[in-house]
Amino acid sequence: MSNMKTTETKLTPFARDVLTGLEKENKSLPSKYFYDEEGDRLFQQIMNMPEYYLTRCEFEILAEQRNEICDAIGTTDAPFNLIEFGAGDGLKTKLLLKHLTDINADFTYYPVDISSNILNELKTGLKVEFPSLQVNPVHDDYFGALRQMEYFNKRRNVTLFLGSNIGNFHYDEAAVFLQQFVAGSRAGDMLLLGVDLKKDPKVISLAYDDPHGITAAFNLNLLTRMNKELGADFNPADFRHYTCYEPASGEVLSYLISLNDRQVYFRELDRTVSFKKNELIHTEISKKYTLEELEKLALSQGLELVSHFMDNKNYFTDTLFKI
Description:
It is built from ten helices and 13 strands. It is an alpha/beta fold. It folds into two domains: 97 residues, no CATH class; 181 residues, Rossmann fold (3-Layer(aba) Sandwich), CATH 3.40.50.
């Protein structure tokens, strides 16, 4: 980058992360920035695609096994906090919320999301569907939310981390996240972790590179967001969405590929970024696990396995752990 006039202390987190990511030799952007208003809309379309099995599998688990899950958690034993990292539109979580309200469980719901837009939509929708439910949205990323958990009311915490969001970390990064989660938890706290499992590579590949072009639009929307918020002059037609799945590691890697040599000027930053033809911007990882690998990861960080709750194809698990 050139034109180093911008004072970094004045930058928004988005601007700072863009500068950091695009200044590196191997360019990258954090996947949390997919989720502006347009990104939220596109991701809801992704979840409805026939190729995107993850949502359907987890919906099946929560629809058919919610009684067993809540019994294992002990949701009628005492008041508790229900904290959800990456709450999104709450489509699947509402199955649990309905069951919990039907059995008169005493809890406060803390949905956490990086998108203020989706949090506002969720809070508005929940007020209509569950008027007596206490909802305290937390606008933050996962690590920021971990730092806030000590300020929640002093009840037992039951944390939901669904949708295979843990897969957005490399294995070592997931270990760090769980380590921090355990460090901020108390004995008796619980974690329901949604994890996509290793399976036929063709099934996984189609979920992240669909024939409808919706996932491509979702990835390319990062460029449009930088145009809107940072005054960049990206032409999305100069970039292409690309994903690859490596079955041994279980990692789906997503990229934007520059189709030509070009320079992009960021008006709000007064900086220019150079791209070479075929240069990559890494935008997302989606890691898949075996049950054995998942158990090893969690147990190494002090989590005790309670139970795996799986769909009928064994594509996906919602696994309950306790501190």
